[in-house]
Amino acid sequence: MTRKPKIPERGSLLNNSMDGMDELFNFQTKEESAAEKQTEKVSGENTLVEMEFAYMSAFPDHKFKLYTGQRLDDMVSSIKEYGILMPVILWHHEGLYIILSGHNRVNAGKIAGLTKCLVIIKENLSYEDAVLIVTETNLRQRSFDDLSPSEKAYCLKQHYEAIKCQGKRNDLLNEIENLLNPSEIKENETLSENQKRLRSDEKLGEEYGLNRDNVAKYLRIATLVSPLLEMLDEKKISMKSAYDLSFVKEEFMQTMIADILVSGEVVLDTKKSALIHDYAKNKTLTEERIEQILKGEKTKKPKSTAPQPIKVKGNVISRFFTKQESKKEIEETIEKALELYFARMSEEKEQLVG
């Protein structure tokens, strides 16, 4: 029996750093499998070989959803008539053959009655390389606009982290382009211009047709627990509310919110999510407050713990400063004066105590 890869906990794939991701897959060494016997005659990478679906494993915890409805029916009909025309891309890692590109083709092929297809096997990939192939191939075949909100968030987060971690990878992107036959990619599909320099968040937004703020929002939304992401896809919560909830860092609190919303007893509107956002940023959010907010019992924003700004009156400024002095010079002088004042006050207190 083919061993399944260990699925990492939520957050390990969508955290703020991709450090140590090579250790995510806790595979054990196994004896040569039937799948390996099928491919033992293959030499070198990117060689086409036929493999049975039974020996292929899905990429762990990726968020791209399988086709359903008419799109799936059309793919099944096409496969019945023409077969699977584009090879599935696999990652050979510790004895497993993990699908990087082709989850929908394999699924539709099984429905169509097939048991195997042509594959291209990739060797010696890092985890970041594998993530990049998964995200790029999905985007090239679907386009960013076709993805659900949770898929967009996942894709942007994984793509951003993979590129930030491994740097410029035009070599790998060019290889993906060749494997997928770029002549069939529509002009408006995302990431068709792979010659662009791989990017910071500004470059990422430019590639996806998003402004920087939208990229930041999707990157935050990607940190939500799966039930909340599903509600976002099902339009049970809005993008604004999903963004607000992303400021709740504690997973158990996010899960609690999801459980309450699933119960159907309350509805999350943007006013409630904004309150949760404010309390989370203020670091005063508790389980009790979550219940009160969702049930409409708490409607006021938390009091800010930050000191209130003050203004110095114009006549005071004119007493001590000239018109030629800049705002920065005035601020620096006031800061020095306050330091001297409090230092003197401290000395006087010490003398009184002495």
Automatic annotation (TrEMBL):
<dbReference type="Pfam" id="PF17762">
    <property type="entry name" value="HTH_ParB"/>
</dbReference>
<dbReference type="Pfam" id="PF02195">
    <property type="entry name" value="ParB_N"/>
</dbReference>
<protein>
    <submittedName>
        <fullName>ParB N-terminal domain-containing protein</fullName>
    </submittedName>
</protein>
<keyword id="KW-0159">Chromosome partition</keyword>
<dbReference type="GO" id="GO:0005694">
    <property type="term" value="C:chromosome"/>
</dbReference>
<dbReference type="InterPro" id="IPR041468">
    <property type="entry name" value="HTH_ParB/Spo0J"/>
</dbReference>
<dbReference type="InterPro" id="IPR050336">
    <property type="entry name" value="Chromosome_partition/occlusion"/>
</dbReference>
<dbReference type="InterPro" id="IPR003115">
    <property type="entry name" value="ParB_N"/>
</dbReference>
<dbReference type="InterPro" id="IPR036086">
    <property type="entry name" value="ParB/Sulfiredoxin_sf"/>
</dbReference>
<feature type="domain" description="ParB-like N-terminal">
    <location>
        <begin position="52"/>
        <end position="139"/>
    </location>
</feature>
<dbReference type="GO" id="GO:0007059">
    <property type="term" value="P:chromosome segregation"/>
</dbReference>
